[in-house]
Each structure stands twice: as C-alpha cells, then as structure tokens.
Amino acid sequence: MTVRIESENLDPNQLLKKLEVSGSGAVVSFTGLTRGEEDGIKVYSLDFDAWEEQLPKVLEDLAKRSLEEFGVSSVAIAHRVGNVGPEEPIVAIHVASRHRKEAFQACSWLIDSLKSQAPLWKKENREDGAHWKEGLG
After folding, report:
1. Which residues are CB-neighbours of 71 under 8 A, at least 6 positions away?
2. Which helix H or strand E contains 109, and what residues bound it?
3. Rounded Cα distance, 97 and 20, in Å
4. Angle 106-112-113 from CA coordinates, rounded to 5°
C-alpha cells in the first residue's frame, strides 16, 4: 500500500511503479485531471487546500478498507494539494488484484469514498473569478 500527498507534481506512472503486482491478474487505474472549462467558463487552475495532518490518515484508512472489503492485493493513491493547472493530474489511484472485477470495484469505491471523506477543499480560479466548490466532483 502506498499513499502520497504531492504539493508540486503528481506523476501517475511513477505511482504505478509503487504498486505490488506479484500474483495479480489485473491493474485498474484512475487519474483525475483539472478541466480547462467548467460550465462553459475557462478554468485557469484549481487550488486544493487540505487538513494536511489528517489527509494521509484518511487515504491510508480508505486504502486498507479497500484491501479488506474487495480482496485486492495492492493499492497506491496520490492526491495533489496546492495549485493544479488544466490537464494536470489531481488524483491517481492504482489497484492490483487477481481478477479485474475486484480491481474495478475497489478503484471506483476508492475515488467515490475519497471525494466524500477526504479533508480537501477545492477553489476554481476561473475567467469569472474564484469559486470555492463543495465536494471534489
């Protein structure tokens, strides 16, 4: 299990190298990117503010739960904090398991749970000003 909080650069491919794949038959990955447009309005960047003392613990707890509940063999999660420009990765999740079904289920559950439970707040810096957004959707 690997959990990282990145303040400068999140490289999903580097994170993938941390995933333990021995004995696995499937790897499922999710990478969330900053959109350059929201509701037809240009987005310059996103700012992610976090409760930095708690964020790693929450991500670790989610990773552990996914290992237990879905029977996957390995999980790697990274999330950016700070300023993230268009098309830059915000979050990356990799899940390895013996079978694809469990890997897909765990990966989907992880991103949904992260978005609802992680102590993160997002501000969109847009053409029409800055807007704090509820949730991480």
Report:
1. 97, 102
2. helix 100-117
3. 10
4. 85
Distance, CA of 136 to CA of 127 (rounded, Å) = 20
Q: Which two tokens stand for residue 13?
A: 């491919």
Give all domains of the chain, ordered by start, each with its CATH number: 2-127 (3.90.1170.40)
Q: Identify any residues that bridge with 75 across adjacent strands, giving them in sequence order.
A: 95
In DSSP notation, 6-75 reads ESS---HHHHHTTS--TT-SEEEEEEEE--SEETTEEEEEEEEEE-TTTHHHHHHHHHHHHHHHH--SEE
Which pLDDT tens digits describe the chain residue by residue (137 residues)? 999 999 999 999 999 999 999 999 999 999 999 999 999 999 999 999 999 899 999 999 999 999 999 999 999 999 999 999 999 999 999 999 999 999 999 999 999 999 999 999 999 999 999 999 865 54
- Residue 8: CA atoms inside 13 Å, Cβ hemisphere, count? 0
